[in-house]
Amino acid sequence: MTLMLIRVMALTLLRDRGALFLMLVLPGTIYLLFAAIFATTSGGEVELRLGLAAHPPAPEVEAAMAAALAGDVRRFDDVEALRIAVTEGSLDAGLVLRGALTDTTTPPLAILVDPGKGMAAAMLEGQVRAALVGAAPEAMLARQVDALKAIIGPLSPAQQIRLDAADDMAVRGSDGLVVTRSVGGEGRTDPAVIYYAGAIAVMFLLFSGTSSAASLIDERSSGILDRFAAGPGGIDVVVLGKALFLTAQGSVQAALVFAAASVIHGVPVLAHPLQWGAVTLLVAAAAAGFSLALVAACATRAQAQTLATFVVLVASAIGGSMVPRFLMPGWLRDLGSVTPNAWAIDLYYGLLSRAEPIWSHPVPLAALVALALGGTLAALVLSRRRMLL
User: Fold this and answer.
1) DSSP annotation of 180
2) How confident is the model at residue 356 (pLDDT cuts 50, 70, 90)?
3) For position 5, what pLDDT does the model report?
4) What is the pLDDT of residues 52-93, one digit of tens each?
């Protein structure tokens, strides 16, 4: 009896070529994507998008820094333009050369970074120090000599004070070479908390949406859709009804996530209630359209479950729901920019961290609208076509 059951299950799988293909091919694909992401974040060369400005200009040092820094480096003539680029998110971090490297009175280098990308500032500082050792050894040596002058010689009371100050500086790990400045989004709420509220919300909206939308296949198999198709509204009534339900369901789920974020971590949801509500409704509608189109394209529940898991996992991984996109390789970052996860994260983070109105992000806004309408329309067309088969 057991062998017969195994044979029946094997034949069922072999006959369902779509599910068989997804089962055999997609695990390896998932592995390759995650390996590319985590190999970079755990030891590979992170390709940061960097900006470089000098005031006053220092061509030799600028050239040496641009050659040594990893990632895409853009030069700016205006420090303010660099600050705006970092604030808007088009750059991961910016480096400002604002004095001679031998000047020990004020930090000659300043790193500009969004509060939500603190890791980018640490990575850039490490690259800067490594670059200067090779590009400007004399300047680095001069800084070390100046630092030693504060503590050498007989220790008079004044020198003892300087020694204590130098010890404190060493403990802090700072030599006055680099200072980090946050641009935009400064406040009491940790930017990472705001970021992951949106990232987790959209990921679970996609998972729950595809799971609920799979009932469309069950209703097709059981003949329920045939009865609706014979009615005045036809199959469209079912698809549109499911789209509305999934939108409402997703809105409630997102609201629960942000309620917890607001109450426990102080995420300023109530500071922008109308715009937050509009984003949430739009993200939920986009997740509903995406889920229905995905399920309507599948012939069996096995296909729908496997394909939905694969697509949502990939979109969440490369779209920033699991790892911030600035830590990914450049090609994967570009690929992730066309996922609903990235669009939702951009809107939520811009609104709640930087207080940017949602219309200041027209690309993700338009993309989510297109996904909501296009996905629902695709589900309608595919459902009608399958009823004719």
Assistant:
1) E
2) confident
3) 61
4) 887 776 666 666 666 666 556 788 888 888 888 887 777 888
Tokens 């939308």: give the residue. Answer: 213
Task: Give dist(CA 216, CA 293) in Å, integer.
Answer: 11
The amino acid sitting at 185 is G
Q: How many CA atoms lie within 13 A of 365 on its CB side?
A: 14
The predicted-structure confidence for 189-205, as pLDDT tens digits, reads as follows 678 888 999 999 999 99
Residue of 51 and 163 predicted with greater confidence: 51
Strand partners, 178: 109
CB count within 10 Å of CB 117 equals 25
Tokens of 380: 């309608």
Query: Strands 109-113 and 72-76, how do they pair?
Result: unpaired
222 three-state secondary structure: helix
Tokens found for residue 349:
């983070």
DSSP structural state of residue 52: E
At 307, which helix (H) or strand (E)?
helix 301-319
pLDDT at residue 288 above 90? Answer: yes
Neighbours of 288 (CB within 10 A): 30
- Distance in Å from the first CA to the final CA of the chain: 35
Structural element, H or E, at residue 98: none
Tell which residue, 200, 221, 159, 144, has the closest CA to residue 312. 200
